Amino acid sequence: MTARFTDKVVLITGAGSGLGRATATQVAGEGAALALVDVDEKGLADTAAAISEVASGAKVIQIVADVSDEDAVRRYVDQTVETFGRIDGFFNNAGIEGKQNLTEDFGSDEFDKVVSINLRGVFLGLKHVLAVMKEQGAGNVVNTASVGGIRGVGNQSGYAAAKHGVVGLTRNSGIEYGQFGVTVKAIAPGAIMTPMVEGSLKQIDPDNWEDVGREFVSVNPMKRFGRPDEVGHLVAFLLSDQASFINATVIPIDGGQSEKY
């Protein structure tokens, strides 16, 4: 395995499961020191255990934090810098799916909750991490958007609005911070089998969610769900110096779904 992250520090939000865990294990296996952030303390511990299986000597800290709370965001950034001295890569990934409803039936409180985590949380992470990277004169950021950030997603007003906002923040921040040696890009995952996607399917039909999933991916040219590790490989590349001239853009990883529809 290559060692693209030797002597590098990577900060990951939403690290307790799914794409965050897959990316954490990937970059740890390539030498990264890691700051893992999530609201789920057990999830963080499970991710740390998974890292120990692929990189037994990896330096890892676990930080329980709500990404929509600016004090908590400031704390996870400060704790990372105090522990490791810098932040080389930031996977700004934490998010929730929210409930599914027609726009007219979508609760205002639910909308605020989804936007608070999926958009405000990304903004706050950018705000505080980019200041560190600007001072360093280097750094790579990857935000988690979605195919729902580049096209419509029925029955998910809050999610679609937030992910479209993540795309805008990505492009804007990349334009602003490229002059300081910092890149900002986003991934737009499609149907990746994570606990969050499983939860969305169970909202539709709790008893037959696997059948719903098969129907859902039938519109994908590859006719299957993506795997978290497939996304982890992409994010690791984008966080590495190999992607140092990719900036202010969004990269789909969806099996071709967004091109077909």
UniProtKB/TrEMBL annotation:
Enzyme nomenclature, EC number: 1.1.1.-
Q: Which residue numbers delimit the Ketoreductase domain? A: 8-212
Q: Quick check: keyword Oxidoreductase in the entry?
A: yes
The molecular function terms in GO held by this entry are: oxidoreductase activity
Which major enzyme category is it? Answer: oxidoreductase
Classification via Pfam families: adh_short_C2
UniProt keyword annotations, A-Z: NAD, Oxidoreductase
Extract the PANTHER family matched here.
DEHYDROGENASES, SHORT CHAIN, ESTRADIOL 17-BETA-DEHYDROGENASE 8-RELATED
Q: Which family does it belong to?
A: Belongs to the short-chain dehydrogenases/reductases (SDR) family.
State what protein this is by name. Answer: Levodione reductase
Provide the species name. Answer: Gordonia insulae
The taxonomic lineage of its organism, from the top, reads: Bacteria, Bacillati, Actinomycetota, Actinomycetes, Mycobacteriales
